[in-house]
Specification:
Bound molecules: NADPH dihydro-nicotinamide-adenine-dinucleotide phosphate
Radius of gyration: 20 Å
Helix content: 25-40%
Largest sheet: 9 strands, mixed
Shape: globular
Structural class: alpha/beta
Mean pLDDT: 96
Length: about 425
Amino acid sequence: MSRVLIIGCGGVAQVAIHKCCQHPDVFSDLCIASRTLSKCEKIKNELEGKTKTNITIKQIDANDYDALVSLFKEFKPEIVMNLGMPYQNLKIMDACLECDCHYLDTAAYEPENVDDPVWRQRYEERIKEKNFTAYFDYSYQWEYKQKFESAGLIALLGCGFDPGVTQAYVAYAKKHEFDRIDTLDILDCNGGDHGYPFATNFNPEINLREVSSEADYFENGKWIRVPAMSIKRQYDFDGVGMKDMYLLHHEEIESISTIYPEIKRIRFYMTFGQSYLDHMRCLEDVGMLSTTPINYEGKEIVPIQFLKALLPDPASLGERTVGKTNIGCIFTGKKDGKEKKYYIYNMCDHQESYLEVGSQAVSYTTGVPAMCGALMILKGLWNEKGVHNVEEYNPDPFIEALDKYGLPKSESYDPVMVD
Ligand code: NDP
């Protein structure tokens, strides 16, 4: 029996809320707190009479630290699941420390305003030191390790699918399949079709920031930078078929390369259709992906935020999306002195996800691991205190829970490799 507070009520949060409500024995009291109260009301009404979980709702602006603290003091959650935007990660972690609750999120901290001079200076230094240019990195949240440890609390970072399950797959591969892992390719394929010429499957602002950034991978202890979308491969995905995929920077490369320094090369690929890429390039060329505010007829607007308001809400894509996602990790390495290959992945069907919880598979594959991560902490199966990424914990109970609650693993011992 636990009190759980979820911040955000978008695509990912709605799945996590549904999944928590399927387990009222653990998630007995749930507070959904988000910026737009009507979204919280809608899901509460949908679940009324279908779950034994007691649901309360609250309007909150997660930028308002005092409001966070007063809500946490009033509701007294054991864990806060931050399923809103990564801009508020640090504020919410501070509030958790002040109010004595565990913390979980699905995306690494990045600032809303990337022109902030203090943040910018540290960003430039990080580029020189580490040589990757993404706006997000784990250093800000890793700095909280000591504070969470001393408070006897857990902050579980990046507990979606990627980041999240992909790192559990690394820990699982190392525990059961390899004495030493040499290379890792993380492949994220969305074979879904929503019928729109252009829409993003999760928060458009975060998605477009990520995809339009310079790409890189990690090799022999160094980050290798390459222009965005400059490395393209084709892969025949189980359940989906042949797709074009592009090398991207992704946040779990930073944590896996830190926690498993033995891995000589880590790359991340994501599939994109030509229509998505053409639209993105055009929007970028005309300045619509800019995060720098402009003055339009006396009002300050941020182009990418204005674009978000025009695009379909990712939470509304469920009904019209068909096809499957396939996300997983291909490893090479050694076991008992012999070279070995191993592929572990999950396939998730958009329409099956929609029929179960009313959401498409990208939200589903993120919301289910968030629920399972909270389950691990609440049941005491993951109990090492401090700030941790998913691959630092025992992968077995987590992967078992994923198998049981909607994201079963598939395995191959002879996968086609990415060249
Ligand atoms: P959505 O845009 O659908 O939802 C975001 C929610 O957060 C909305 O309900 C929004 O409110 C709320 N919100 C935004 N700002 C605030 C604020 N200041 N105070 C309170 N609530 C706020 O995004 P998604 O659900 O698609 O994504 C959620 C998170 O999950 C993102 O950080 C994303 O990067 C991450 N993600 C992680 C993945 C993984 O595999 N690890 C994969 C996909 C996403 P409002 O309704 O008012 O807009």
